[in-house]
Write a structure and sequence with these properties.
The termini are far apart. Helices cover about 75% and strands about 0% of the residues. The chain has seven helices and no strands. It is an all-alpha fold.
């Protein structure tokens, strides 16, 4: 008589997970992600293009403009979806693949065309003196500075290409995997 019983619903092993999101929730999330990612890409790539144009460096300027275009394509895809056109997902997926190819091209260009000697000659004198001091403290010859900067450039642009492959690839996969839910929202659950 003194014991109190709690009537809790039975829990099955492994069934504690949340149910999958509703198609409308997936649709709304896809629109938010595409708008945010597209706008962020336009701002970052546009700034990159502007800075490169100011310094009269043509390859990065062109790459920045092209990358901004892919951001606009992603936003366009989101707008098509919002207006009931499921082909907007294709725009968004192609935008991810396009930015990936654009970054691959730029990274490859920089790996093959980076001139460490020209780079070091463009460094302000005070910064160059500081670099030479750091090399001397590390027991490295300042004559090897161009080789180290060339190697560092290759590593940085290789990492940029790898991270782009991972991020843009996962974004394209996310958009592709959301297609059934998006089409359910646009066409209804009975037809596609």
């Amino acid at each position: 008589k003194g014991k109190r019983r709690v009537n809790a619903p039975p829990v099955m092993a492994g069934k504690n997970a949340k149910p999958p999101p509703l198609p409308f929730d997936v649709f709304e999330r896809v629109l938010r992600v595409a708008n945010f990612d597209g706008k962020l890409l336009v701002v970052i790539a546009g700034t990159f293009a502007l800075m490169a144009a100011i310094s009269r460096n043509l390859p990065p300027t062109v790459v920045g403009v092209i990358a901004s275009g892919w951001g606009i394509a992603e936003i366009h895809g989101a707008n098509k979806l919002r207006n009931g056109d499921p082909r907007g997902l294709d725009w968004m997926i192609w935008a991810q693949l396009g930015i990936m190819l654009t970054v691959f091209f730029y990274a490859g260009w920089m790996i093959t065309h980076f001139n460490a000697t020209d780079f070091l000659n463009a460094v302000p004198q005070l910064a160059l003196e500081n670099l030479e001091k750091q090399f001397a403290e590390a027991g490295l010859s300042t004559a090897d500075m161009p080789r180290y900067f060339q190697s560092m450039s290759t590593e940085v642009y290789s990492l940029v290409a790898l991270l782009t492959f991972i991020f843009q690839g996962l974004m394209a996969r996310y958009y592709h995997r959301s297609r059934p839910a998006v089409e359910t929202v646009i066409f209804g659950s009975g037809r596609r």
